[in-house]
Amino acid sequence: MRELPAGLLNHRTLRPLRETAARVVFGVLDAFDFVSGRKDPLIPPRRLRRVVGPGDYRRIGDRFLCHLIDPGGLRPSDAVLDLGCGCGRIARPLTAYLESQAGGRYLGMDVHRAGIEWCRNNISRKYPHFQFLHMDIQNGAYNPEGRVQAGAVAFPLRDGSVDFLAAISLFSSMFPLDVPHYIEEMSRVLKPGGRLFLSLFLLDEKSRHALDSGRASVPFATPVAGGLTAFPDRPEAAVACEGAFVLDELKSHRLALEGGIHHGRWRGGPGSSLTHEDVLVAVRLSDRLIQ
């Protein structure tokens, strides 16, 4: 038997094989759900759910709704912008919470076209106050052929038109150098008094100690400008930002941190945590309050 060239079966070679195998397996399971009548019309097929990561899609979405309410401060009457909405994991529980009669409405935006199309066809048709928009932003992990650079994107919303902005794992999937522009756009579209809920990986003294000691659940090790990535060949798949950098950008764009940092479980430390990632809640200050 001929010997394989050294390094042939590395992670780059195996990735297409794993992707093909996953599509086949998920396709079979989705077909079984459909035939058996077990399919929930507000839960996407597995081939799409895998984009938002592992875990129970329904349970994680329900838990995040609780976090958006407390400590996030979400209200049923809020106009919500969900950046990085994926295939609707947060939108699904929000359909039972946001009250259209009271002004509650939702816009989800994401670079993953298939997830947005599924949400339009399955959520928007039943809940017209829920809208979804594909943003063709270049992202090496999720939209490599995107036409718009992240540092040049403009949210298609009026100034001060959003009551509540959720960005769950958004900064975990982009280069830190693009974060300031996104925070600027977040501040622009939020109303004074509007609230921002961020989940992300933050680098600080405690998280760096967790990385150095091997306790961290995500092996951030390769430097990128403004942070670290866990996957050097696909850096935007998991990025950690310098904490001081993010906090300074929030402050400079009139977003006041409320309640400190809710440290995530990824750090491997003791005590209760809201999510796997770190969580920040901030309030948009009125321009009149800025000196």
Structural class: alpha/beta
Overall spatial form: globular
Q: Characterize the biggest β-sheet.
A: 10 strands, mixed
Total discrete domains: 2
Q: In angstroms, what separates the terminal alpha carbons?
A: 75 Å
> What is the percent of helical residues?
25-40%
SSE order, one letter for each helix or strand? HHHEHEHEEHEHEEEHEE
Tell me the radius of gyration.
Answer: 20 Å
Beta-strand segment tally: 10
The gist of it:
With 291 residues, the chain is α/β, with parallel strands linked by helices. It has helices at residues 11-36, 46-49, 57-69, 91-94, 113-124, 179-189, 205-213, 243-252; strands at 79-83, 105-110, 130-134, 162-168, 190-203, 222-224, 227-229, 239-242, 255-257, 278-284.
Write structural notes for this entry.
The chain is α/β, with parallel strands linked by helices. It folds into 2 domains: 1-39; 54-289, Vaccinia Virus protein VP39 (Rossmann fold). It is built from 8 helices and 10 strands. β1 (79-83), α4 (91-94) and β2 (105-110) form a beta-alpha-beta unit. The radius of gyration is 20 Å and the shape is globular.
List the SSEs and their pairings.
Blueprint: H1 11-36, H2 46-49, H3 57-69, E1 79-83, H4 91-94, E2 105-110, H5 113-124, E3 130-134, E4 162-168, H6 179-189, E5 190-203, H7 205-213, E6 222-224, E7 227-229, E8 239-242, H8 243-252, E9 255-257, E10 278-284
Parallel strand pairs: 1-2, 1-4, 2-3, 4-5, 5-8
Antiparallel strand pairs: 5-10, 6-7, 7-8, 9-10
Throw out a few tags for this protein.
disordered N terminus, 10-stranded mixed beta sheet, alpha/beta, Rossmann fold, 291 residues, single chain
